[in-house]
Amino acid sequence: MLIITVQVNAPAGQAVGIKEDLAMYLERFGDIRVVSVTEEQPRYRQMGLYDARQPQRGKKK
Question: CB-based contacts of 41: which residues, under 8 Å, 6+ apart?
Answer without folding.
Answer: 12
